[in-house]
Amino acid sequence: MSLLVVLQEVTKAATDLAPLAKLGAAIAASIAVIGAAMGISKIGASALESMARQPEAAGNIQTSMILAAAFVEGVSLFAVVVCLLVAVG
To answer: Is the pLDDT of residue 74 over 70?
Structure first.
């Protein structure tokens, strides 16, 4: 077998798996979004509970909560962008 024939077979096999790659990317993006939503809701619930226990520290807790939620949102956005690149490319 020549190298050209092998490359043609590999290309054909890769195009056959393209719909599965798109499905996998869609599932991964949805898992990333669901995970981020669960993480941010846990951060918010914990922050509200902490503010209820120590109202004098509410400002510091709120700042930490917003910062942590932004980090979680950034990571999930990165994951969704990677999944979209897989789906499109």
So the answer is: yes
